[in-house]
Design brief:
With 132 residues, the protein is of the alpha/beta class. The protein has a domain of 89 residues. A 4-stranded mixed β-sheet has the order 1-2-4-3, sandwiched between helices. The longest helix has 12 residues.
């Protein structure tokens, strides 16, 4: 049986707005053409972002991305593996439960894979309203 290549879930989530060519849900419709292309691409307000990785919630890269996105005015929440899970991609565990730590505001550490982290983030942390 031939296996198909599948785009990792995290990469797909990051690329979906760009691939669809649409503005985020929080952006208001434009009534008149903008004078500059940069202004036309800018959302009307801050984005709600679920930020994840495969290196763990406390890795330097995810922390720097969190810092910069927050400084830009976005509402960022880290939901990432508790430990380094490099190379596991969208793999998910078969355990009936997972352990989750909430070490600080806006940060969730999932004792599982990156796929488990995204599933937890969407079903629990962003249960009321999905991130942009």
């Amino acid at each position: 049986m031939r296996r198909k290549r599948v785009l990792p879930l995290a990469a797909l989530m990051l690329c979906t707005p760009a691939l669809a060519g649409t503005a985020p849900a929080v952006a208001s419709p434009q009534t008149a053409p903008s004078a500059t292309p940069a202004a036309a691409a800018a959302p009307a307000g801050p984005l709600r972002i679920l930020l994840t990785n495969d290196d763990g919630y406390n890795a330097p890269g995810i922390r720097k991305a969190f810092e910069r996105l927050t400084a830009a005015g976005h509402d960022v929440t880290i939901v990432a593996p508790l430990t380094n899970q490099s190379g596991t991609g969208t793999k998910m565990m078969n355990a009936p439960t997972i352990t989750v730590k909430h070490p600080e505001p806006k940060v969730w550490a999932v004792d599982g894979t990156p796929g488990d982290s995204v599933a937890f983030g969407l079903s629990e942390v962003f249960a009321g309203a999905a991130p942009d």
